[in-house]
Design goal:
The protein has one helix and three strands. It is of the alpha+beta class and 91 residues long. It has one domain. The protein has a three-stranded antiparallel β-sheet, covered by helices on one side. The longest helix is centred in the N-terminal third of the chain and has 15 residues, at 10-24. It is flat, with a radius of gyration of 16 Å. The termini are far apart. The structure holds zinc ion.
Length: 91
Amino acid sequence: MSPTFPPISDEEIIEHYVFEMLKKGCRECGENREGHFFYEAGVQDEDEHGMKNGLKWYMAKAYCQPCDIHYDELFEVRGELDESNKNSKET
Ligand SMILES: [Zn+2]
């Protein structure tokens, strides 16, 4: 065991959100059983016109078999915009 805590990795963040997502299940019907509810989670770099702008999207693509729907679940956006956007308010 290391005495220091490593920084939270992208994988740990995704794992946390996937856990929460699976507790709720499909956003339409609540299905969350393996073999009925499918998902693929990961991190995507946001890019504008082919240029990465410094933001990372933590998200999952989900598929519910009973509903036969695909949808994107956005967990969180992290990072800092490379170019400062004075029009946007900080949250
Ligand atoms: Zn469903």
